[in-house]
Amino acid sequence: MSRFIEVPARMLPPETLNALLETFVTRQGYDTTDTGEGMAGWVVELKRQLERSELIIAHDLELEMTEVMTLAQWRAFGRDLADDEEEGEHY
C-alpha cells in the first residue's frame, strides 16, 4: 500500500480547499498584490491550475498531512522519499 494518495479537489469542502490553497500561496512566497484581488485572486488561479492538473493535492497517510504541490515538487518529493527509503534499508 502506498503511503501517499492523491486527493481530488472536488472531494474537499470548499473552506478546506481554500485553506490548503492559501497555505500553498504563503509557503511559495507568492506576492498577493500581483492579482489585484489579493489572496482570493491566487486561490482562484490555483483552482484553475488544479483543474488543468498542474497542481495536485497529496495526503500522507503516515503523517496524516495534506499538501498542495506542483507536479515538479511531487516528482522531486517522490524521488527524495525513495532515496530515504533505500538508505533506510541499508541500516
Mean pLDDT: 82
Summarize the biggest pleated sheet.
3 strands, antiparallel
- Beta-strand percent range: 15-25%
Which regions contain 5 or more consecutive residues with pLDDT less than 50? 84-91
Could you please say which CATH topology applies here?
Arc Repressor Mutant, subunit A
For the biggest β-sheet, the strand order reads 1-2-3
CATH C-level class is: Mainly Alpha
Following the backbone from N to C, one meets helices and strands in this order, namely EHHEEH
The rough form would be described as globular
What's the total helix number? 3
Radius of gyration, in angstroms, nearest whole number: 15 Å
Q: What is the total tally of β strands?
A: 3
In helices, the fraction of residues equals 40-55%
Class based on secondary structure composition and strand pairing: alpha+beta
Query: What's the CATH superfamily, by name?
Result: YehU-like
CATH architecture: Orthogonal Bundle
Overall number of structural domains: 1
Protein name: YheU family protein
Family: Belongs to the UPF0270 family.
InterPro entries: UPF0270, YehU-like_sf
Organism: Vreelandella rituensis
Q: What can you tell me about this protein's structure?
A:
With 91 residues, this protein is of the alpha+beta class. It has one domain: Arc Repressor Mutant, subunit A, CATH 1.10.10. The protein is 53% helix and 16% strand. It has 3 helices and 3 strands; from the N terminus they run βααββα. It has a 3-stranded antiparallel β-sheet with strand order 1-2-3. A hairpin with a 4-residue loop joins strand 2 (55-60) and strand 3 (65-70). It is globular. The relative contact order is 0.16. Residues 84-91 have low confidence and may be disordered. Belongs to the UPF0270 family. This is YheU family protein. Pfam families: UPF0270 (PF06794). It comes from Vreelandella rituensis.
